[in-house]
Amino acid sequence: MNRAEPRSRRAVLRLGGSAAVAALLAGCGGDPGGNGGEEDQSENGGEGANQSEDGNETNESDGDGNETNESESGGNETDGNETDGGNETNESEDGDGGASGAIEPGEIQLGGETQAWLGVSPDQIADEENPTLTLQEGESYEITWENLDGAGHNIQILDDNDEVVDDYETEIMSEQGETQTLSIDEVTGEMAQYICEPHQATMNGDIEVQ
């Protein structure tokens, strides 16, 4: 009985030692695995931080794009101003054209009858009695008139002193339907009026020189 007891104690110690060795081996195997997991997580965390920084840089580049758009809108404003300036130039030119009522160099047509000279052409004197002839200084014109009533008429260009300017006058003509032409080589500032000599009280009109 006494010999059997030591053997049972040795068996228990052996079993206990085996269990301890197994625990140590298990512990050593677990530590590398745990450390590796923490390192992977830290590395993953680092990569995540880098990605977030990259995202911030992308946002900053987006901001630069917005600034570029603002400069483009500034260009549109400049284009609008230039267009407005072009419109103002056109208006000023139209205003100058409308202010000038001078007859273009060329032929002027009148009808002659005792009561008055009758404007025929250009359109700006058409159907007017004793129309004012606005002529351009230095230009040449031809004044053609038709005898409308068979009375004796002629045409003369006078100055402010009622003197004929540079012999600009025609002979008296009394045939109805006939025409005469007075050629003016160069308009001068001394020209003041045109008349029919026999009927100057009724057949007279002003000349304006521009």
From TrEMBL:
Residue ranges with Acidic residues bias: 54-70
Superkingdom, taxonomy of origin: Archaea
Organism from which the protein derives: Haloterrigena gelatinilytica
Record keywords, A-Z: Copper, Metal-binding
Domain Blue (type 1) copper: residue ranges: 139-210
InterPro entries, A to Z: BlueCu_1, Cupredoxin, TAT_signal
Annotated stretches, region: Disordered: 25-106
PROSITE patterns cross-referenced by the UniProt entry: PROKAR_LIPOPROTEIN, TAT
UniProt-recorded name of the protein: Blue (type 1) copper domain-containing protein
Positions with biased composition (Gly residues): 27-36
